[in-house]
Amino acid sequence: FALNGGRGGPALAVVGGIGPVALPRDFRLEAYAQAGAIRRGTTEPYADGAVRIVHPLGTIGGVPVELGAGAWGGAQRGAARLDLGPSLGVSVPLGKQRVRVLLDWRQRVAGTALPGSGAALTLGTDF
């Protein structure tokens, strides 16, 4: 379904990611990408991905804190963008899992997709 009331349809996608990958000087790399198509009368392709390189800053109350930089991009019918910027992350224990909270500044450097540049808060978990 579409949040704006637009039409949905069947989709086919490929999703992949890597990380964390150890880099020199205690840096880590993590990345993901996905691409696919959705059928809504016509077949509409889409793709997006992200890459982050981070370094641990230490812990606050036993919670690991990391700082780094990222690149985020995406494209679909009528919209595309590429963002670059700093990324701050924590990994908070929640039961048997850890919840990752990322605060990024995403500076749009290419494309015209909305919204403009600004802060992005991402919540996620590993499985």
In short, what is this structure?
Helix content is 0%, strand content 76%. It has no helices and seven strands. It has strands at residues 11-22, 28-40, 42-60, 63-76, 79-94, 97-111, 118-125.
Descriptive notes:
- The chain is an all-beta fold.
- It has one domain.
- It is 0% helix and 76% strand.
- The protein has no helices and 7 strands.
- The chain has a 7-stranded antiparallel beta sheet with strand order 1-2-3-4-5-6-7, with no helix packed on it.
- A hairpin with a 1-residue loop joins strand 2 and strand 3.
Number of domains: 1
Neighbour order of strands in the largest sheet: 1-2-3-4-5-6-7
Number of helices: 0
| Coarse structural class | mainly beta
Rounded mean pLDDT is 94
- Oligomeric nature of the chains: single chain
- Tell the overall outline: globular
In angstroms, what separates the terminal alpha carbons?
Answer: 25 Å
Tell me the strand percentage band: over 45%
DSSP helix fraction: under 10%
Largest sheet, if any?
7 strands, antiparallel
Order of helices and strands: EEEEEEE
According to DSSP, the number of beta strands is: 7
Radius of gyration, taken over Cα atoms and rounded to an integer in Å: 17 Å
List segments where confidence is low: pLDDT < 50 over at least 5 consecutive residues: none
